[in-house]
Amino acid sequence: MSSVQFHMVTGAFGFSGKYVARRLLEAGHEVRTLTNSPHRSNPFGGKVKAFPYNFDDPEKLAESLRGAAVLYNNYWVRFNHPGFSYARAVENSRVLFEAARRAGVRRVVHISITNPSEDSPFEYFRGKALLERLLGESGIPHSILRPAVLFGKEDILINNIAWFLRHFPVFGVFGTGQYKLEPIYVDDLAALAVHEAQRTENRTLDAIGPECYTYRELVQAVGEAIGKKRPIVPVPPALGYAVGSLVGRILGDVTITHDEVEGLMAGLLHTGSPPLGGTLLSEWVREHAELVGSRYHSELARRTDRESPYEKL
Fold first, then answer.
1. CA angle in degrees (0–180, nearest 5) for 170-294-184
2. How far apart (Å, rounded) are the C-alpha atoms in residues 123 and 259?
3. Residue 230: φ, ψ to 5°
């Protein structure tokens, strides 16, 4: 086995992976990344070397990982699409974990989701549970972090809630909007991931922030922070999903998915665990009020345009 020399982060040119990579660089580590976007603008210049995932060539993937102390795994997809799917993401992750085992990676810090279950009626949450099991079966020592919702300059959910508040006279919430979620700041998650890399035992942690909102309260707090208070209107989930799908087609994106609507309403983004992040969403949005929601963030654009800077899509 090669001597340990670097830390490998998946998707370091994207959202959460970028914050993990930055934390590692600040701590003096050598950092490399596995990415589907090797030609995307590199926010770290020459400090982070990029390697393709090579899921179709496990030997090349293992070679890229050989010598890594820790693998920080953010790889996943948000929804099924002709170009990608949950099932493919699960299989690719199996290949990744096996390659990490063969390469002698000492530890994996894996980003999951709150309340995953292989018995879940929602494929997103089933897939996340399968990944946790595959990681356990790999035998690699690991930490599993389970965030509910991430927020930060490049996030999708909070930013696009603000975008809708800026552009529409009312905001519809699914049903009563009383279901809860506990958002965590992306850099708090990154700090937790880097800390967990130093552990030796297997751990699973709910990675949640210090504020617990109902969805209705979240929308209200974002609206107040950006100066766009709107009437919040309860709508039947089927109607809300239909409207979201229509807006998505107009924008050329997927604004909301069935699993996101149903999982949110089922309370799967709420745990009641002690918070592990310290940044308040309410304060962060106020501090970045001019930025949040100033333009729409497109998930599909980020997955189809593999060259433009991530934060511009």
1. 85
2. 7
3. -125, 155
Angle at 171 between CA 166 and CA 177, to 5 degrees: 135
Query: What letter would DSSP give residue 148?
Result: S
Among candidates 248, 118, 239, 243, which has minimal Cα distance to 175?
239
Question: Which residue has 């006279």 as its token pair?
Answer: 169
d(CA 101, CA 66): 10
What pTM did the predictor assign?
Answer: 0.95
Tell me how far apart the alpha carbons of residues 307 and 13 are, in angstroms, rounded to a whole number: 10
How is residue 311 annotated by DSSP?
A: G
Q: What is the pLDDT of residues 100-140, one digit of tens each?
A: 999 999 999 999 999 999 999 999 999 999 999 999 999 99
Cβ pair 8, 72 in contact under 8 A: yes
Judge whether 142 and 275 are in contact, CB under 8 Å.
no
Whole-angstrom distance, CA of residue 192 vs CA of residue 143 = 10
Rounded to whole angstroms, the Cα distance separating 104 from 277 reads 31
79 φ, ψ (degrees, to nearest 5):
-160, 165
- Burial of residue 74 (CB within 10 Å: 0-12, 13-18, 19+) is buried
pLDDT per residue as tens digits for the range 183-234? 999 999 999 999 999 999 999 999 999 999 999 999 999 999 999 999 999 9
d(CA 107, CA 104): 9
Rounded Cα gap, residues 286 and 304, in angstroms: 32
Q: Judge contact between 127 and 163, C-beta under 8 A.
A: no
Torsion of CA 275, 154, 44, 8, to 10 degrees: 50
> What's at 185, amino acid-wise?
Y
List all residues 6 or more positions away from 83 whose beta carbon is below 8 Å from its beta carbon.
Answer: 303, 304
* Residue listed under structure tokens 């820790």: 70
Q: Which stretches of the chain are DSSP H helices? A: 16-26, 58-65, 86-103, 123-138, 157-167, 186-196, 215-226, 237-251, 258-265, 281-287, 299-304
